[in-house]
Task: inverse folding
């Protein structure tokens, strides 16, 4: 914007500098990802060949078929899907109810409750994981799906409530008032009017919730024990321990494990970034 | 409006002058909607914090039936542990260097993407490339960089070919380099969030401010310091404090790249606490460390809230 006013040779120079800068930045951001992709198609013996090549003679999908043909690896994906989908559904449900209260009602302690919800985001996970361990063991939830689903909600719920409240606040109150005029109560107004027109907001919050749960590492590490309960991020780590140097498989697993998040992000990119910057950072 | 606070609810609906039973029930309605949230916050935050504080003043917690009161003994143990002091120092270097680099890279990339000289398609492509590191989970990032940084990996190959180093360097195995290397990887993985927020901030600066500066004869450099930076200041400060909080909570990256080693050179408060609890089963001492981490985070959060109020 600032350089738009430059004229002639200075403008050409500025543009050349910009393109060099952009390209260097692009290499910094993109080359590690490209190398991961390239390694996943190599035979393991070629991973550290000298000189390194982006595409080798034995280019193949073998590393992927190894991972996808292995029941133990597929179990990590199943676990991650179960946990992340359950967290997303429950978070949206609870957050919609809470955001409705914050957006449409005046009640005592609303500011205090709101402040507590916001402050949850600052509590370090490492502080929580110790009592969570004590709690899930005491409740018989150690090494179970409910234990992971419940604890993941400490990360997802505050964000979801903040973003959904901001979204509801953008919708005119007259919409839900009309239901009440027709004799409906606030419950009807929420589910018949507000929720159906809030689908874009629900998608943005849902995508973010899914990503947080899919990527969560510390609780998944500390609150599960057996390999059949591990999620994808822990599965990647286990692969690193088991076959210490099966780099091609580790990269294939990493890519397969990233696909759900990449796909969601690319589909909802605009909505998602918009929701994040307006709902969470600037609100 | 402040950043992480929910907006003030709209004014109350007009109430009937006489308070009937119906109006009392009406007043309870919002609490009905909030009840699942309140239950979850109590179970997931209030109770656990009380538990961890009480663990920190006791001994033999979790693993044994009968715990005993221990006063401040756990805190003394933690604070006099040289490993804890090392973790505190490493965490400080890790979070401050990461934050400054995130800010510089994020601002640089955001300004390049915001340039008026680029076509829409070019911008869209570079924006996706620049966001890439943010789209991979930390476990994946740790694995990628372990591959790249391997003593016989591609980074060593390039540096040797360019004649910068003689032999392959074991970047993560050398206590002299490991902390800087994990910090570098954290910088790589974390700058896109700064970039996205600053890009939104840049797009929100009214064009008239730049036009007025041009009329006054300002060059691009002066416009940057006198228009761009003052306009972005609130976003920059918020992001900086949030980043310090988030980076101080980074566990997975360190755990998967170095496990805190070699020789504690990358030990952070998070890995130190985790090891006490889940490797050594010293849950009481770990709780004392966890409470100290909580207090340090609260100091940062206090600055964040104060900054938000000023906006």
Result:
């Amino acid at each position: 914007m600032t350089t738009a006013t430059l004229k002639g040779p200075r403008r050409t120079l500025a543009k050349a500098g910009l393109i060099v800068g952009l390209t260097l930045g692009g290499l910094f951001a993109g080359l590690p990802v490209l190398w991961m992709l390239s390694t996943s198609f190599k035979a393991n013996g070629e991973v550290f060949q000298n000189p390194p090549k982006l595409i080798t003679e034995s280019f193949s999908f073998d590393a992927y078929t190894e991972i996808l043909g292995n029941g133990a690896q597929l179990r990590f994906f199943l676990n991650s899907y179960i946990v992340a989908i359950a967290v997303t559904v429950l978070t949206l449900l609870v957050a919609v109810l809470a955001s409705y209260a914050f957006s449409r009602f005046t009640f005592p302690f609303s500011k205090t409750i709101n402040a507590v919800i916001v402050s949850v985001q600052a509590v370090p996970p490492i502080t929580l994981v110790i009592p969570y361990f004590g709690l899930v063991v005491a409740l018989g939830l150690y090494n179970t799906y409910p234990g992971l689903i419940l604890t993941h909600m400490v990360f997802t719920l505050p964000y979801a409530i903040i973003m959904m409240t901001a979204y509801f606040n953008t919708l005119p109150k007259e919409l839900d008032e009309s239901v009440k005029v027709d004799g409906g109560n606030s419950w009807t107004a929420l589910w018949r009017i507000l929720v159906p027109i809030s689908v874009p907001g629900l998608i943005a919050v849902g995508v973010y919730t899914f990503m947080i749960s899919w990527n969560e590492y510390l609780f998944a590490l500390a609150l599960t024990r057996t390999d059949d309960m591990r999620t994808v991020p822990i599965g990647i780590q286990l692969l690193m321990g088991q076959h210490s140097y099966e780099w091609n498989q580790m990269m294939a697993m990493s890519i397969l494990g990233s696909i759900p998040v990449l796909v969601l992000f690319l589909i909802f990119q605009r909505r998602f970034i918009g929701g994040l910057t307006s709902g969470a950072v600037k609100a | 409006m402040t950043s992480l606070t929910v907006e003030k609810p709209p004014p109350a609906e007009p109430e009937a002058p006489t308070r009937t039973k119906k109006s009392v029930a009406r007043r309870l309605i919002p609490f009905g909607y909030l009840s699942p949230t309140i239950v979850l916050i109590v179970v997931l935050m209030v109770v656990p914090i009380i538990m961890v504080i009480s663990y920190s003043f006791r001994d033999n917690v979790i693993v044994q039936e009968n715990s005993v009161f221990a006063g401040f003994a756990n805190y003394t143990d933690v604070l006099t542990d040289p490993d804890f002091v090392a973790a505190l120092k490493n965490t400080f270097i890790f979070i401050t260097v990461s934050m400054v680099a995130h800010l510089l890279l994020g601002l640089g990339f955001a300004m390049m993407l915001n340039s008026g000289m680029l076509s829409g398609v070019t911008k869209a492509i570079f924006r996706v490339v620049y966001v890439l590191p943010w789209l991979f989970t930390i476990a994946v990032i740790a694995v990628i960089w372990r591959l790249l940084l391997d003593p016989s990996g591609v980074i060593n190959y390039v540096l040797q070919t360019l004649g910068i180093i003689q032999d392959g360097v074991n970047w993560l195995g050398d206590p002299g380099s490991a902390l800087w290397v994990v910090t570098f990887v954290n910088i790589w993985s974390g700058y896109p969030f700064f970039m996205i927020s600053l890009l939104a901030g840049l797009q929100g600066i009214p064009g008239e401010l730049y036009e007025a500066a041009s009329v006054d004869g300002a060059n691009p450099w002066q416009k940057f310091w006198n228009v761009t930076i003052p306009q972005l200041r609130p976003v920059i400060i918020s992001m900086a404090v949030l980043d310090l909080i988030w980076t101080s909570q980074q566990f997975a990256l360190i755990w998967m790249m170095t496990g805190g080693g070699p020789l504690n050179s990358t030990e952070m408060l998070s890995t130190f606490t985790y090891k006490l609890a889940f490797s050594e089963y010293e849950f009481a001492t770990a709780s004392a460390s966890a409470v100290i981490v909580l207090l340090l985070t609260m100091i940062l959060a206090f600055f964040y809230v104060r900054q938000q109020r000023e906006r």
